């Protein structure tokens, strides 16, 4: 569950940074959040299969 919480935190950080005009930080945070969500989904599918 920690991966999903980190993904949500990075997504919120990206939204706040985007609203404040820090486009670089927002883009990087959104990329990290995207990869964390993908990792969470892969781990969830693996745990359901096993």
Automatic annotation (TrEMBL):
The answer to keyword Transcription applying to this record is no
TM spans (from-to): 32-49
Going by the UniProt record, its keywords in alphabetical order are: Cell membrane, Membrane, Transmembrane, Transmembrane helix
Q: How does it sit in the membrane?
A: Single-pass membrane protein
> What Pfam families does the record point to?
DUF1328
Instruction: Tell me, in one coarse class, where this protein mainly resides.
Output: membrane
Instruction: Choose one Gene Ontology CC annotation of this protein and give it.
Output: plasma membrane
Keyword Transmembrane recorded: yes
Identify the InterPro entries for this entry. Answer: DUF1328 (IPR009760)
Where, per UniProt, does this protein localize? Cell membrane
* Family to which the UniProt record says this protein belongs: Belongs to the UPF0391 family.
Q: What is this protein called?
A: UPF0391 membrane protein M0R89_09710
Source organism of this protein record: Halorussus limi
Write the lineage as a comma-separated list.
Answer: Archaea, Methanobacteriati, Methanobacteriota, Stenosarchaea group, Halobacteria
């Amino acid at each position: 569950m920690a991966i999903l919480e980190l993904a949500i935190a990075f997504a919120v950080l990206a939204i706040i940074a985007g609203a404040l005009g820090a486009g670089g930080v927002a883009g990087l945070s959104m990329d990290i959040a995207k990869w964390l969500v993908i990792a969470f989904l892969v781990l969830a599918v693996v745990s359901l299969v096993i």
